[in-house]
Amino acid sequence: QFEEHVKYSGQVGHKPDYMYIMQSLLMSNPQAAAKLAVTIAQQPGPPVDVNTITDLFLQRNMIREATSFLLEVLKPNLPEQAMLQTKVLEINLVTYPNVADAILANNMFTHYDRPRVAQLCEKAGLYMRALQHYSDLSDIKRVIINTHAIEPQALVEFCGTLSPEWALACLKEMLSVNAQQNLQLVVQIAKEYTEQIGSSGIIDLLEEFKSYEGLYFYLGSYLAFSEDPDVHFKYIEAATKTGQVKEVERVTRESNFYDPEKTKQFLMEAK
């Protein structure tokens, strides 16, 4: 009824007291108020500013109604709506992070304040969303160590979007903070993006942390594609240090690429 009245008033040039109508409805029927708000906002040269309507909801802590209203009026995704896009994400990141996560997942908006939203995502524990929004390496390194709360495959894919230098810096940070917890994930990322990051950088990183287990699992996937004697030797070394005796025997028997004298000397010393 109210919505039809608003449309008719717009057609005949009559201006009802929309603020009074909205305030009355907000007390008696918040959902109807949200629908009416959309109708008002969609009038040509809206009689009440969208910010003013939004504040009516927020003053009464009606986050869901404010969100419903804003999602409807912001559908065009216009540059001039940047502040309102930021506002709807802000209010939900603070009160209903799951709703904010769903809005971001739908890629509805592209003009909001990304650094601001990144900070709020981090505070809300939406670490993957925060990573997708931050653009400074220091921020990414701080967030990426929350591996306990990030879906592993999503993190693997994210690392694929980074430059080789940034990817290595992130892997190093993960090992620095908790090598035991993060080693498997680091090796998975290293294996996935060997060509992109570079095997030498990955090997150097694992050696820096004296992670023979990491070297064993990483080089095991890489060995078949390498003719580098040093890589084959490092794999034999890692297999020895981790007690993989049968694997040492297999590689020394089947590989044609390791340095026999160097390997013999190492194995004799290792006994």
- So what's the oligomer here? single chain
Helix share of residues?
over 70%
Determine the structural class based on helices, strands and strand pairing. mainly alpha
The outline comes out as: rod-shaped
Strand content: under 5%
Order of helices and strands: HHHHHHHHHHHHHHHHHH
The major beta sheet can be summarized as:
none
Number of strands: 0
Distance between the termini: 89 Å
Helix count? 18
Integer-rounded radius of gyration: 29 Å
Mean pLDDT value: 93
Unreliable residue stretches: none
What do these coordinates show?
- This protein has 271 residues and is an all-alpha fold.
- Helix content is 73%, strand content 0%.
- The longest helix has 29 residues.
- The radius of gyration is 29 Å and the shape is rod-shaped.
- It starts with a helix and ends with a helix.
Per-chain topology:
Layout: H1 2-12, H2 18-28, H3 30-41, H4 50-59, H5 63-73, H6 82-95, H7 97-105, H8 114-123, H9 127-133, H10 137-144, H11 152-159, H12 164-192, H13 194-197, H14 199-208, H15 212-222, H16 229-241, H17 245-254, H18 260-270
Helix pairs in contact: 1-3, 2-3, 3-5, 4-5, 5-6, 6-7, 6-8, 8-9, 9-10, 10-12, 11-12, 12-14, 12-15, 15-16, 16-17, 16-18
